Amino acid sequence: MESTRGDESKGSGSPDPDARRVVWVSQRRALRGRDIDFKTSLGGAFPAGRDARGSSRRGGKTRGARRRDFREPMAAMSTDEACSETHATRLVQVWTKHETGGRLRDGSRAWEASLAATPEIKLVRGEVEDASQVRSDDGNDGKNKNASAFRASVFFDALTTSTEAHVLYTARELQSTQSMLQENLSNLNPKGSSSAENETLETLERGSRFPPGALVLADCQIGGRGRGGNVWTSPPGCLLFSFSTTHTVGATLPFLQYVATMAAVDAIQEGADAAIAAAAAEYSQQDLSSLEKNKGYLGDKFRRGTGGAVDVRIKWPNDLYSGGAKIGGVLCTSTFVDGQFDVVIGVGINLDNETPTTCVNEIIAKRWEELLREANGSGSESTENTYITPEPTSREHITASFMNRFEALAGLLNASDSFASLEPSYLRQWLHTEQSVVLEEPSGNVQVTVKGLTKSGYLLANDSSGQRFELHPDGNSFDFFKGLVRKKLAN
Question: Which residue from 164, 414, 456, 462 is spatially nearest to 317, judged by alpha carbons?
């Protein structure tokens, strides 16, 4: 992923860990009603861009040339319709899982809200999923270029949460999904607002603009947000969404980003499981003699539900990696209002864009090719069934799977007020156990070994003598592992 980086010198100073107490560990700023970006010191940027697919790519098997259909141009978004800043009004359709859902605090429907912080956004009720049937901005029937191709009904069919993501906002193009939520949920006044507007926004009540369980998804973004104010862009093919949730315990607030990265890995693994299992079943049906020859193919070569169908791991604290390449990440912000935190979590995943790094559907396809080679032997001749490829997993299913897992994992975090029960699973999904890290200090380089997490969510490491340390980001380095400072812990 390519990035346009903001001011990297922001927050520079001496690497004193006591002077760099991470903002989200303390509630002092929150209690003053200020926004907390708990990625400023502990986290990375998520990729902002556009999803070039939108609609489903259901193609089943492919024969002949082994071209995967997720590489083909998206019918719903031509090159001429690439994201730009030319849309004065951005149409956002609002969908609800249940007919009676999506109510604001005053009883009105979600699409009737006035989003004062983002006046360029026009909310409309989501009534039809065919973008060509949405009334255009000028009032004439015909294709609206700012209507998303995301299929709400497919998403809701796969969604099993009790509350999360029951209200869905979809757009062809937004400045930022996270900004749309954060700026309108905040109790802070937007810059340049009049005193009358200030008075209204200062007394903004929870639920007056977005109902509980709101999720915003865009096919593309033109101003995606990253860590420390950085702006991130990415090529067509990204899955981009943000959602709002609430949290009450400040001590466990930082761990929500870990929960989100775990949910992302689980969602990708679930999508890979389904795609590979379906292809394997079709492979077996196409050539029974091959199945006999490779007895136990499904059981020995691929087993569902292991959580390891493909190589996807967490790079601490909030990035997703596969084969050494970044494929996504999470960005979390929060505001403390009326005794609890309003948290906005932004997620970006390379779903279909195999450049500049790689993407989920490419990873799945390569894993399938590995399974075929194992089953048939590297020197075997190609047969009809070797040209079967997995169906690409869709935005709708990955998003629903993510929300299902996030609600379950966040529920465990909230029930125990601790990350302890989730930490073993997190450590199985991350990249860093026993990783050697070199700390650059004025007195010379110091080598330590990562062992896990501390109770406050930082890296736990030991030096060669067995002394334990808590490793903090220095607040300056773009790569966290190149800018760590240590704090000595009691053994």
Answer: 456
